[in-house]
Every structure is written in structure tokens, then in C-alpha cells.
Specification:
The chain is mainly β and 323 residues long. The chain has no helices and 24 strands.
Amino acid sequence: IYVSPKLQYKRRNWVVTLDIPFHYYSSLSEGYFSPRLNVYWDITSQWTLRLNGQLAYRPTSDSYLYKGIMMRNYRILQQGYAHAEELSNRSLGFNLNYKNPIQAFFVNGYISYLYHRNPFLKEQSYQGESIILYYLPQSTESETYQIGGKLSKGVDWWELVGSLSVSYSDSHSRMQQNGVLQPWHSDIFQTKLDLTARPARWISWDYQLVYAYNRLKSENHQSSANYLTQNISVSFRPGSRWRMGVSGEHYLNTIVGNHTKNFVLLDADLNYTLSSQYEINLRLSNLLNEKRYAYTMLGELTRNYCEYKIRPFNAVVEFYVKF
């Protein structure tokens, strides 16, 4: 059973909303409240402030309520637990926005905090080539802080629009590994740049750059990884019937230590409009004929090496009919 009473107060440029959702689980014969408070303030026609907070309570997921061991993949085994307990979350967020549509200028900034309490402590042990994950009846807590923002601006020259976003998160928690309690700390930094432009009626382009840095630390171990990706696409219209496009992707990954790996993909396409009903398109994928891509991914006290096999260079001819 689920009900959600709601109270809302409005006055001039203020809106205050209080939600009090209530969940009742017949299988557990228990109910849980999760009140939420949102405050919206239009400071001026350009500045807007938002505050939000929540206290959330819920039972543990029934997907873990079993006594046996289940295989998650060829290496990891997951053992469930037999008793439902209460989980709790507390969150607080602050968001400030500025907009100036006439100047095509927009700014957004936010700060958030999340607290999570779990009645179980995650345990990880090794048996031969397998990793066994299970939970102990011991309360654990985790905290996450996040801060970030985004700025975007448009100009008449080349019909250029650019945006820059930055985010940072810091998390603290703990788990148990082979009977030893392991506090851990994770921080993630990411920035993204987007640019679009149309220098002339017959050409336009889009560019995106993303950089991210991940670090995971425990008392006896530290690992980190960073990556940079770039994407660019250029579209040409040399005539009313012709359309050509070229796109490229660049990946730069840290493999081990300071060793890095570059990876580039290129595609192209050519489109010709025969009439208002018929079009023909030639699509060329993976012009550099790359066949393999690998990268390293960090998790909770683990490092996973992933490898993908890529379809080699291929050409496809497409014919479209419009009715």
C-alpha cells in the first residue's frame, strides 16, 4: 500500500512543498514514512534558488532475502540474508540558477549531501578463483558530498554555443574483507566541454570533451584511473541534394601507473536525395579498421579489466522510401 499526502504553500515568489509518502508492506506487516521538503524561491526574474531535504526509510530489498548462494557471474558469488531490516537515507541539496535568455547565458550550481545507513556490513572473501559476497548483521554508514556546476553561453558569431560543466563527489564508507574491516574513501572528478557551431549554411560541427579522474583508497591500498574522451562530428551540405558527414572519437585511458593508451575511431557517411520520396545513403564505419578496445574500471576495492572486440571496417548502402 502506498499513499502520499502533500502540503504546499505559495506566496508571491515562494513555493514550499512537503510530501509525506507512506509505504506499507503486507509481507512484512510494517510501514515506512519518507518525508520530503522542497523550497523554491524566485529571487528575481533571472535568479532561482532551490532547497530540498529528505528522510527516507525502507526495508532491505527482497532480492537479497534468500539463504543460499547465487552466481552473479563466472567469478562472483552472492550470498543472501534471511531477515528484513530497515535502511535509512538522509539527503540535503542546494541549487542556484541564473538565466539570461536574451544574452544566451545560463549558470547552474549545486551542493548536495547524502547519508546512508545499512543494517548489514558487506563482507568479501576469496575462495580459490571465486569472490564470495555476503552480509553480516552489523550496522554500517556511508556519506557522500557532491558539488558541481554548469555554464553555457551562445554567441551570434558562427551561431556558436558552448557549455562547461564540472562535478566532484567524495564518499566514505567501509566493508569487511577476509575478516578485516576496511574503511574506504572514493572521490570522483569530472569535467565536460560541449561546443556546437554553424560557420556557414552548408557546414556545421559538434565537439565534446570529457575528462574524469577516479580514486579509491583504503588503509592499505590505493588505486586510481583517469580517462579523456573526445567526440567531433562535421556535417556538409554542398548542394540541396547532397549531405556528407564525418565523425571521430578519441579515447585516452590510464592502464597501469602512468601508462596510457590512445584509441581513435573514424566514420563517414554520404547521403543523396533522389526526390521527395527517395534517398540513398552510403555509411562507412570504422575507417581505421580497429578491432579491439580495452580499459580498466574501478569498483569497491576491486579493479576490473574490460576488453571489447570491435566490428572491423564495413560499408553499408541504405535506400529510403517515404510514403
